[in-house]
What does this fold into?
Amino acid sequence: QYVFIDVFDPEGRGNWSNPDSSGNFEIPVEPGEYEVSIWVAPELTGLGSPEFQIVRVGNSTVDIGELQLTTRNQSLTGTVLTDTGKALPNVEVWAWSNQGGWVSDFTNVNGEYTLAVSPGKWEIGYDLPMPADGSEPPYLPEPPKRVQLKQNDSSKSINFTAKEAGAQVSGTVYGPNGGPVSDLNGWVYAREYSSSADEDEFYDFVAEVPLSSMGTFSFPGVAGEYIVGLWLPPGSGYVNPEEKYYNIAVANGVTTLTDYNQTAQNEASFSLTANDATVSGSFTLNANTATGLTGEVY
It folds into this structure.
């Protein structure tokens, strides 16, 4: 099956279905307001998804009529190269649009790609292939770009440049007892530092790596200023630590780190504090205990 019809509400409740051989579908859902969207597999070349629509469902069947797939007769083309001009093959380049859905392609030996798209606004980015040993790719990817194609545009060219990482940043996460944590499900991320960054600004991460079973991490980088943070899942038993600033310098193949006070650091590190207190409470309705609720307290 190459076409999927998704019907979900803002809370993620809903259902999906494939159309039958005649293009008809029927999706059972509970009463409510839903977003109806179509996902078209990349293998179905030349066709894309129409813009999603909002449908309110009551206690009877709702006929939303005919959903028409869009025709992708325009193209986005370009290359993915390193900052030294080397072509990067086998890189998945993708594009997303509310009006046209999702499309992707892999770069050839020359780093070239072609995406069949329809008119509208598209966000385009790429994912570097993972090395065979499971380590992080030795490049820092360029953030996604946005482009708009008008009806009379046959194609547009979008090129990407990945920075070759000359640095290797290593670090450790320490527990309350001062030793490295073990078997902690956590992720370390890094983003470029900006002194004028707004608190509501959307950040593009240049690195995201999981903690090892011994509480260590490592990611490639280039010389520059970065904010490094640690993400912990709910129920980890620890307080999420504050992000840290590091200046990365590379000389003769050696990576050095300095913190915000320009003090040299042997590694990037985090020290965790245990959640050793409990907050409890209850919900009431008209002075009576409320029951049957489903939700999240945060």
